[in-house]
Amino acid sequence: MIELNNVSKWYGTFQVLDSCSTRVDKGDVVVICGPSGSGKSTLIKTVNGLEPFQQGDITVDGIAVGDPRTKLSALRARIGMVFQNFELFPHLTVRQNLTLGQVKVLKRSDEEATEKGLKYLDRVGLLAQQDKFPNQLSGGQQQRVAIARALAMDPIAMLFDEPTSALDPEMINEVLDVMVGLAQDGMTMMVVTHEMGFARKVADRIVFMDHGKIVEDSPKEEFFVAPRSERAREFLARII
Ligand code: ADP
Ligand code: MG
């Protein structure tokens, strides 16, 4: 579904990604972890064309992301992305947040978009909040709305960039529970997170990054029991 082949990227002279290769098969969950500044956010953003890259290639469902002829807006419409800071539209209600992209990008009717949006809002347990504005919700609720909004676009894959790291501890699980449910339903997911409980539960593979390189790309059993690199061992010892 998603394949990265020797992807390199520079900011000026600073190399932020160094020959990164990995793949995510349909229905798989790949967790990306590693120290701050190692390039995790940059890597995940290259997948839906939010960050350009200079070398290598990326294909998503057969579409070449780096090809100048590829319509990135069409690609992005098919890949859901959830960020650390929710990024809901503050001036729109929850229901309007859920329908806007469907109507504008997918050209669905208001009726169809509302029906679909509310279905996913119900799924994340927030149907009763549909008329509220984002600032009237807790951080955990806002993130669940952001996930519902992404799902309402019928994505072929979901990308998450530290979706729980801005949340108070008591709200982390309500968001992780939604993500575990998605994983168990067979969604293809790339998730940057340090929540190793989540990784243990649903990840198929763990990618460990350091200084722009993919240092380790292993089945989770292997990664947790016997990480191959010293850097991954140190990292795990610090966060678990
Ligand atoms: P992570 O998500 O693993 O913390 P990032 O992908 O955000 O790492 O950043 C990787 C490196 O690239 C960091 O050293 C960061 O300072 C640098 N970086 C990120 N964005 C930019 C940018 N727009 N311009 C220059 N350097 C950047
Ligand atoms: Mg990051």
UniProtKB/TrEMBL annotation:
Q: Which Pfam families match?
A: ABC_tran
Task: Using the record's annotation, list all stretches that form the ABC transporter domain.
Answer: 2-236
Entry keywords, A to Z:
Amino-acid transport, ATP-binding, Cell membrane, Membrane, Nucleotide-binding, Transport
Regarding the membrane, this protein is recorded as:
Peripheral membrane protein
- The source's superkingdom equals Bacteria
Asked if the keyword NAD belongs to this entry, the reply reads no
Q: Name one GO cellular component term.
A: plasma membrane
UniProt keyword Transmembrane helix present: no
Query: Which family, according to the similarity comment?
Result: Belongs to the ABC transporter superfamily.
Q: What is this protein called?
A: Arginine transporter ATP-binding subunit
